[in-house]
Design goal:
single chain, 108 residues, mainly alpha, 4 helices
Length: 108
């Protein structure tokens, strides 16, 4: 796989992230594009996990806020799609809203 494809696969699912990470680790030339998007994708997955846990806690307390889980899922999906678009353009730009928190935090 080329660098652009590996960067896109990193955003698809957590399994896609693992595949992209393993592909990055075994490659002889370490691409800064793939490294950057691996960090961004991991950050999006972590934020998505935290938001899902928070929505589950809120829904257990106030069940009438059922629409909240759909909105949180939609936010996570939009962030992943924006990451895929940025990776497909081969640009090292952070994902909106949460990408700045994860720039340079992960050492691959």
């Amino acid at each position: 796989m080329n660098n652009k494809t590996v960067a896109i696969v990193a955003y698809l699912t957590i399994i896609g992230w693992v595949i992209a990470y393993l592909s990055y680790k075994k490659s002889s030339e370490k691409s800064s594009l793939v490294k950057y998007h691996l960090g961004q994708a991991l950050g999006v997955f972590l934020v998505s996990l935290v938001l899902s846990i928070l929505s589950a806690v809120i829904l257990s307390i106030i069940p009438s806020l059922g629409i909240l889980s759909y909105v949180i899922s939609l936010i996570s999906l939009v962030l992943m799609l924006l990451g895929v678009i940025t990776a497909s353009n081969e640009v090292e730009r952070p994902v909106p809203l949460v990408g700045g928190m994860f720039e340079g935090k992960f050492n691959f």
